[in-house]
Amino acid sequence: MRTHTFTTKSGAPISRMWIMILCWTTVALEGFDLVALGATTPILTNPAAPHAGLTTEAMTVVATVSLVGVGVGAVVIGPLTYRWGRRRTLLACVALFSIFTVALPLMPAWQLIALFRLIAGVGLGASMPVALTLMQETMASGRRAHASSVTMTGYHAGAVAASLVALAVGNAWEWVFYIGGALGFVVMPLIYRYLPDSLDAEPVETGADAKPAADTKPGIGALFTHGRARSTLALWIASFMGLLLVYGLNQWLPKIMVSAGYPVADSLVMLFVTNVGAVVGLLVGGATADRFGVRGTNAVWFLLAALFLLSLVIRFNSGLVLNGFLLVTGIFVFSAQVMLYGFVGYVYPAHLVST
């Protein structure tokens, strides 16, 4: 069975707690930086005084290329991690998105803002698979969905923090990005000191669950071998649908609510409430999936997410009722997507999980 002892090749112990904390923190930084753009969108695209020419149409381009960067980073990170090791790869990713986040408010034109978000997105998208893989390896083999969901609470904790910072700074929106980038620089020395590098350290496995060393490099082609093609395509389609909702809500919910007549402050509260619901859903969903089966739980979660999203087309006269529906919507929408990450831990061998 898998034990919870981690050692380097020289025999030096590695703290499991530090691995969990830093994986969670890395994902929280991603949540903060990605939601920072959505939280500041109503101010940046204010028709009376758009920043750097950021109309709603221009912001759509900025948000889109940001997610293109996330996709590119997620695709390329598996083979790079295999070659460079997880610690060095994660350090490079955190450095990349921190630099281009903290410098973003200094850009004088929206085209440059779009370029900086594209580059930052590469670092953001590459960080999450590394953190999720490390966390799944750290947890017991029967708790992979729970490992993913606990790690991903960091994303929504970061989103909550971005919403609160945006509320606190008001029109001084630049500080949302300065703070997000600075936090990355603070975490980097801890990653260097306390995270294992996969080329030098692995969790100890013994007994029936022990697996031989992988003889296949983790390229994308390996996802379609040994009968994995159908699972790979199904997970890609499900992830496309889930991430469309996750990033769509976090990017555009404040702007949509402002366009619907709500004040900017209220729209940020709604973003906050939705991400609080996400944290609750992740804690409940991951444990439920590990206990009752990740496939069936995932299907039920996506169904409930669809139903509650449909309910939001109703115009609520009570802000309390609307926030209640947003809370429950966040519970199912965000955790449904994250449970797919847990599913990956059950479908693929360890050397392919990051890919």
User: How helix-rich are the residues, as a percent range?
Assistant: over 70%
Low-confidence stretches: 199-215
Described by the principal axes of the CA atoms, the overall outline is globular
Span between N and C termini? Answer: 24 Å
Q: Give average pLDDT, whole number.
A: 81
Please summarize the sheet with the most strands.
3 strands, antiparallel
Series of secondary-structure elements, N-terminal to C-terminal: EEHHHHHHEHHHHH
Count of strand segments: 3
Class inferred from helices and paired strands: mainly alpha
Quickly describe the structure.
With 355 residues, the protein is mostly helical. The chain has eleven helices and three strands. The protein has helices at 16-44, 56-84, 86-102, 110-138, 144-169, 174-194, 229-259, 264-292, 294-311, 319-347, 350-353, and strands at residues 2-8, 13-14, 201-205.
List the defining traits of the structure above.
single chain; 355 residues; mainly alpha; 3-stranded antiparallel sheet; 3 strands; 4% strand
